[in-house]
Amino acid sequence: MSADSPLRVGLLGLGTVGQGVLRVLAQNGDEIERRLGRRVVVTHAAMRDIKARRDCDLSNVTICASAAEVVAADVDVVAELIGGMQPAQQLVLAAIARGKPVVTANKALIAEHGNEIFAAAQAKNVFVGFEAAVAGGIPIIKAVREGLSANRIDSLAGIINGTSNYILTQMSRRGITFGEALAEAQKLGYAEADPSFDVEGVDAAHKLTILASLAFGTKLRFAAVATEGISKVLPQDIQLAQELGYRIKSLAIAKHAQNERGDTVELRVHPTLVPAEHLLAKTDGALNAIRVHGNAVGQTVFVGRGAGGDATASAVIADLIDAARWLAAPAQAVPYLGFGSGALKEARALSFDEIESAYYLRLRVADESGVLRAITSILADLEISIEAILQKEPGENEDATLAIITSQIPESRCSRALEKLGELPFVRAGLSRLRVEHFE
Amino acid sequence: MSADSPLRVGLLGLGTVGQGVLRVLAQNGDEIERRLGRRVVVTHAAMRDIKARRDCDLSNVTICASAAEVVAADVDVVAELIGGMQPAQQLVLAAIARGKPVVTANKALIAEHGNEIFAAAQAKNVFVGFEAAVAGGIPIIKAVREGLSANRIDSLAGIINGTSNYILTQMSRRGITFGEALAEAQKLGYAEADPSFDVEGVDAAHKLTILASLAFGTKLRFAAVATEGISKVLPQDIQLAQELGYRIKSLAIAKHAQNERGDTVELRVHPTLVPAEHLLAKTDGALNAIRVHGNAVGQTVFVGRGAGGDATASAVIADLIDAARWLAAPAQAVPYLGFGSGALKEARALSFDEIESAYYLRLRVADESGVLRAITSILADLEISIEAILQKEPGENEDATLAIITSQIPESRCSRALEKLGELPFVRAGLSRLRVEHFE
Among A291-305, A405-419, B164-178, B324-338, whose mean pLDDT is lowest? Predict the structure, then answer.
């Protein structure tokens, strides 16, 4: 293989991202050749629905009957853009077994089976790129893995699910309910018919799993992520949060600590109150934003498109270019997760019960005297400080609504407080609790 | 050299950044070893003032009498942290001549002599890293050079001079003048005794030169940057801009176009009105932010610390880690500017006169009837549309102030308009013009 011959790419899957790869390569082929010194060309592709209309030129692509055929074909790199577990995993492992570099956009696969895949790849010394698995339009994998490699990264937090962010943005701008915003998002194609993957936090949990390993040098462990969906957020919460100086965002949060208990990580996805002035609070619509805090750089924030064919294709092609450079000198490589495989730690993951956080509490209470005293007594007895409190004047014969921002406390203590508050005769059912992140 | 032996680093200069490198390596040495598989150790250092107090541990460092001695010593990588042109350039070239990888934080050197340095390095196949030269806390070099490598980048814009941004932020928050804000910044150590390098845009121009080459694949050409300082911005401009929905920021802007005139670039640094809702408008104080627009990803924004010993050290050490990986396999390397050296273009740089922009105009006019008609007639005759206009009610016997946002027009036409407006009998001296960027 001469360095000047084109890099031959085999595409597994020709959905949104696969078509994006072909389109971007067609559009930017010359510019990419100026960078790499050789062309990047899709020579083979496999697709499930051979008759579907596609928004790209396939005239120079050999369409194979099966994805396995593409893996076996005369291609230099395999790009897995099928998604899901099987057959994606088998195909990736098959490519690795043949010593072919693999580029994948499959966050679920890397989050749930990355440890095995990287072990297989390391044994064969094969490149695996997955920049497209998280926030396609933001080169966040490379930034965390290489750009911030001098740092001990203690936390990261991101808006990494466009659907949830779109829904919360619409709820916030127009005062509509979760159900209304979701129905709209589905109509516009921003949410799936079964939206649970996005709005319950599974998609973000996959991405968070990957980011946390890159940041902390810990093994991938998807099962360690604690998730809470956004469906329980009410327009009222968004309104109260705004009046208290916050926005509600679905955040994926990872924290790492080393102390007498050893290495612990928190991996969690949940609706979160974010100070209105923070960049993450201002990341609206389908945008993604990721905040990384390192002990040398302090806070960095990366913002860009999270999804979309061309943005994700951009990440896939950046990996293809890296794969081509790796092929020219396979001895040297950045470790898959940025840390030597032997150096990856097993960290204990904290459950929601074990974390500490500030909290937003919403209570509906009868409009009686002594209510505030009873509530604040319960909190004081549990050593929970009130950082902010807001009581809205009730209408005639209506209940009053009370919103409280607490100090940083163990979640278990917050749960205890909710229990006790719920027992008060004038507190109505439906107490609500959301976590607050101050990024300090 | 075994892969497990420490990477021996020679530091040229032990100022803020050099001390930061030692401090961060001491603090994060284990984490860095987990990433790289070997330790990174400063073994030699040279400094001008041997007696100055330093905030780092030098006990294991051999202090050399001259920087040249460090270059000649038994070190694997040389980190040039002296700054300025000479002797930095000679030392970098001397290291390259010895085949030693070089890491530098020297934006002036790379912007003004990068072409020669990269040519020399290429001839000897030597690694040169300069992530620390632009926005130390943001891994923007790698992001543009590798992360966005699938894109045709058409423009970028950044807040990349912390001093200017600090001054404008203070002016904006507290209504103080440029002179007052500058004096404060000097007192706090955020601005030099001679602040012209920062506030006249030279520092930002150095950084912009580098970013533009990485984005567009053009040769480095510092002389092509058109600059305008922030000293002429009045508190009144900031106030009027805010009322029109903008913030005033010192932006470094690079644009690339290909058309019948061939390849053209705009490289400019100047105070700019930015829509208040844009992330760049919200980047305050000493923070840096860079917006990159690629045709596949759309808009991406990177935010973080621009300066400071530890943030810049983070970038230096990330490059040291890359240098160590490169040493393990010197055959393969990302080109210095992301494009093959033979593929770098010479693009014609447009002067201010040749650019197009929207403009903010501020006029002080006598409080007479017919004034607005005369002004709008001049603009209409020159085919300049008014996108927004704001006239403040004057006090008794005072002049009225008028602020206008124009449509996108050639700057030459804007100058013509200013000339004509200045000739009107009721327009006072001191017309002001600032450029407006909408990021569309």
Answer: B324-338
Q: Under an 8 A CB cutoff, do B332 and A326 touch?
A: yes
Active-site positions of B read 207
- Cα distance between residue B262 and residue A223, in whole Å: 55
Q: In this predicted structure, what is the pLDDT of residue B417?
A: 97
What confidence score (pLDDT) does residue B3 get?
Answer: 52
Distance of alpha carbon A179 from alpha carbon A421, whole angstroms: 28
**Residue type at position A245:** G
φ, ψ of residue A275 to 5 degrees: the values are: -55, 135
What's the pLDDT score for residue B332? Answer: 65
Q: What angle do CA A247, A253, A257 make, to 5 degrees?
A: 130
Q: Does the CB of A101 have a partner CB in chain B at under 8 Å?
A: no
Residue B356's CB is within 10 A of a number of other CB atoms, namely 15
Residue segments in chain A with a per-residue pLDDT below the cut of 50: 1-2
Q: Phi, psi (5° rounding) for residue B262?
A: 90, -155
Give me A382's structure tokens: 């549990």
Distance CA B254, CA A285 (A): 27
pLDDT at A69: 97
Residue tagged 């100047």 (tokens): B270
Q: B299: which chain A residues are within 8 Å (Cβ-Cβ)?
A: 304-305
Res A136: pLDDT: 94
Q: Token pair of B36, please?
A: 């790289």
Chain A: residue whose CA lies nearest to B153: A31
Give CA–CA dist B148/A320, Å, rounded.
Answer: 12
Query: Are residues B301 and A304, on separate chains, in Cβ contact within 8 Å?
Result: yes
B139 contacts in A (CB within 8 Å)?
142-143, 146-148
**Confidence band, pLDDT 50/70/90 cuts, at residue B440:** confident
Residues in chain B within 8 Å Cβ distance of A24: 150, 296
The alpha-carbon gap from A20 to the nearest alpha carbon of chain B, in Å, equals 9
Condensed to tens digits (0 to 9), the pLDDT of residues B221-270 reads: 999 999 999 999 999 999 999 999 999 999 999 999 988 878 999 999 99
- Contact at CB, B35 and A325, closer than 8 angstroms: no
- The model carries a pTM of 0.96
Give the ipTM: 0.95
Query: Which residue of A lies nearest to B137 if distances are taken between CA atoms?
Result: A297
A265: Cβ contacts below 8 Å, ≥ 6 apart: A212, A216, A218, A224, A254, A255, A256, A257, A347, A348, A349, A350
Contacts of B314 in chain A (CB under 8 A): 148, 150-151, 294, 296-297
Domains, chain A: 7-138+310-343 (3.40.50.720), 140-306 (3.30.360.10), 355-436 (3.30.70.260)
Determine what percent of chain B is predicted with pLDDT higher than 90. Answer: 87
Is residue B347 very low, low, confident or very high in pLDDT (cuts 50, 70, 90)?
Answer: very high
Strand order, beta sheet including B7-12? B62-64, B40-46, B7-12, B77-80, B102-104, B128-129
Average pLDDT value for chain B: 95
**Is A150's CB within 8 Å of B322's CB?**
no
Nearest to B304 among A297, A335, A338 (CB): A297
Confidence of residue B48 (pLDDT cuts 50, 70, 90): confident
Residue of B nearest to A283 (CA): B279
Instruction: Name the 3-class secondary structure at A226.
Output: strand
What is the rounded distance in angstroms from the CA atom of residue A92 to the CA atom of residue A128? 9
Minimum distance, in Å, between the CA of residue B418 and any CA atom of chain A: 37
- Distance from C-alpha of B51 to C-alpha of B32, rounded to nearest angstrom: 30
Residue spans of alpha helices (H) in A76-176? 88-97, 107-124, 140-142, 162-174
Interface of A with B in 105-134 (CB under 8 A): 131
